[in-house]
Design goal:
Elements (H helix, E strand, L loop, with lengths): L4 H25 L4 H5 L2 H11 L14 E4 L5 H10 L39 H14 L6 E6 L6 H12 L5 E7 L8 H4 L5 H7 L3 E6 L3 H8 L10 E6 L22 H11 L4
The chain binds thiamine diphosphate.
Length: 276
Amino acid sequence: MSYLSEELNSLQNLSRQIRAHVLRMSHQAKSSHVGSSLSIVDLLTALYDRIMRLNPAIPDAPDRDRFILSKGHACAAVYAVLAEKGVFPKDWLATYHEEGSLLTRHITHTVPGVEASTGSLGHGLAIGCGMALAAVQDGQNYRIFMLLSDGECDEGSTWEAALFAPHHKLDNLVAIVDYNKLQAFGKVKEVLDLDPLAAKWQAFGWAVREIDGHDFGQILDALTSVPLVTGKPTCIVAHTVKGKGVSFMENELAWHYKPPDKEELSQALQELGVSE
Ligand SMILES: Cc1ncc(C[n+]2csc(CCOP(=O)(O)OP(=O)(O)O)c2C)c(N)n1
């Protein structure tokens, strides 16, 4: 499908703002996982701006679509998108990781708009399966979107849940794999090779599409087509870049843990074309 350039520009502008929040939050809180957060910004922007049924004024409305961030360490990006969409005030972002702040450094369900607390890797897909099954049993038509990392595809619990969803024909469940090919201490290929990843999900009974997770056209095409096959859960394998959007962070393992200092923050914001 082709999209108007204004539509794509507006998504790109929003994702730039979200990246800028993530960078400021990581700098201010001296917190890690900036690269992990930057890799999912475009997927989150499309989901929250264009795909999910969510009323920011009533984030717990019973008929809302649900989103679960299974890679809970990348919460800064979700907090930033929720603030940009008006679920809570943007000035909360400046309290990220402070003592007493709601915005903890792994995602927490006490934050408005957040469905599940995660951070111990490998649990989000099972939570998503439970929510999807509950929707079917209650005759509800809301959908569950969940985002997991490639590192979580090393976890047995992920594959247990991956067996469960097709068995129960959960076509209201969409799992997006943020395939950035880096983990905390090395490359996926060297830690535990996952390829061919899409074929593995397919073999488990999922309808699968591979996309460039930074190309809004491809992201929207995939997300507006779910379920890809009626009666099957959808898996979108999104090829992404850890640290995406900041030249010196892209594909650099150091930014899994390292926060930007003052100069690095300035340079990153300058690259994004966003003021400090
Ligand atoms: C069960 C579990 N083991 C270890 C960790 C520590 N840890 C945090 S992030 C991470 C790996 C990050 O790589 P990946 O999961 O691929 O996510 P990315 O940051 O690349 O998006 C690890 C091992 C954890 N949070 N949970």
